[in-house]
Amino acid sequence: MKLEPIAQSGATPSSGSVGTVTADESFEPLLASMVQAEPGQIQQALPVSPLLTGPSVVEASSPGFRAGPYSGYGPRRAAAAYQQQSTPPAPTPQPNPAESGSGPMSAYQKYKDDQLLRNPGGDGYDLEHQRVATDQTQSQSWWGRVGKDLSDSFGNLKNLCNNFLLGARFCYRKPNNEIGEGTRRGVVGSVVDFFKDLGSALSFGQWRPDGSSKPEGVWERFKFFGSHLMKAFSRDLFDGVCGGVNHMAGDLVLAGWNLVEVLPDATIGNLESGRKLTTTLFDNGQVWVEYLTDIVPTGDAWLRVHAPSLQEFKLPVVYNLGMPEHFTGDTRWEYIRNTPFRKTIETIGALLADVAIGLSTGQVNLTSDSGPKRSLP
C-alpha cells in the first residue's frame, strides 16, 4: 500500500515532502482565549474528545483510585507559556552618553573634563552632587546662571581656606568613568606631617605616628631613617607645602574668574547664543588657568614631569612619558588620565617654565658675551 503525504485542506503539498501543515489563523486567538478563559470555558473550546467529556480525565484501573475532575489548568499554563516565549522582551533603556559622561571622548575632552572636575566653575558640572550635564546651563533661569557663578566663586574661596589648612576636596574621573572624590594636601597639614616624618627618621623608627612597622636590626633602621627623611623633605615640605601654596593661588584666580562670569551671564546669557558663548569662553579659560598653575614649579604637572624612579632607574621626563593612562598607588598620577596628549602639553609647558625661571634668575643666558669687544674712538 502506498502512503500519501498528509496535507491540510486548501494547501498544495510539495513534491518529495513527507508532510506539509500550514499554520491555522485561528491558533493565536485560541491561545488568547485559553489564557483568559475559565476551566469550564477551556473545556468547551477544545475539540470534543471522549477523554474530556467524562467526569474525570482518567479512570484508574485499580479499585479505590479515582482521578480528580478536569480543571483545565494544564492547557491554560501551556498557552500562557507559549505566549510569553513568543513575545519579544522589551529593550533595555540605554543611558544618555551626554548626561552620564560615558560617551567616547577625545584626548582633549578627557583633559578638559579632568580640569573642570578639580575646581568649581564648569557650567555643566555639579561637583557637590558629583554630576555632569552638558545642557544644564541652557535650561536655567537668570538667577540660576548668576547664582551658580556666585556659588562657584565662593566654592573656590572655600577651597583656598581648606588648602591652607588640611586640604580641599576635589572630584576626578575613575577608570570606570564614574566620578570620585579625593582630598588635596593642605599647607598646615603638610607641615604637621613634616615634623612627624622628621621625628620618625631621627628616632630611627622608635617613634612612628604613622603606624608603620618597627624596623628590626641596624640595616633596617638606617633604611627607615633614609626613607622617612626623604619623605619629610620631598613629599611633605616640597610637594605638600609648596604644592598647597600653588593650589591656593589657583583657587584665588578661579574665584575672581567665576566672579567676572556673572556679567556676561546676566546680560548676553539671556540669549541661547550668548549662553553658549559664555560657557565656551569661561570653561576654556578655567582650563587654561588650571594648566598654567600645573606647569609652574611645584605645580602638579611640574612634579609629574620632574619625577624620577629610583626603583626602575628612570630619569625625570622619561619616567612620566612611560606611565600608563591610569595608575594607582601614587597621588601624582592617581587622579588624572595621563593620556599622550596630557603628557605632551605638560612636558612642554614644564620645561618651558624651567627655561623661563632660569632666564629670570640669570641661570640661563641665551646671549653670548664672549665675542671681541670694541671700544669707541
Description:
The longest helix is centred in the middle third of the chain and has 44 residues, at 217-260. Helix 8 (187-202) packs antiparallel against helix 9 (217-260). Strands 1-2 form a two-stranded parallel sheet. The chain has a two-stranded antiparallel ribbon with strand order 3-4. Among the domains are: 25-57 and 68-83, no CATH class; 98-166 and 173-181 and 248-361, no CATH class. The chain has helices spanning 27-36, 39-45, 50-53, 73-86, 97-100, 107-118, 142-164, 187-202, 217-260, 262-266, 272-295, 300-305, 318-321, 331-334, 340-361; strands at residues 6-7, 19-20, 125-126, 131-132, 169-173, 179-183. By secondary structure, the chain is mostly helical. The protein starts with 5 loop residues before the first strand and ends in a 16-residue tail after the last helix.
Ordered list of secondary-structure elements with their pairings:
Elements: E1 6-7, E2 19-20, H1 27-36, H2 39-45, H3 50-53, H4 73-86, H5 97-100, H6 107-118, E3 125-126, E4 131-132, H7 142-164, E5 169-173, E6 179-183, H8 187-202, H9 217-260, H10 262-266, H11 272-295, H12 300-305, H13 318-321, H14 331-334, H15 340-361
Parallel strand pairs: 1-2
Antiparallel strand pairs: 3-4, 5-6
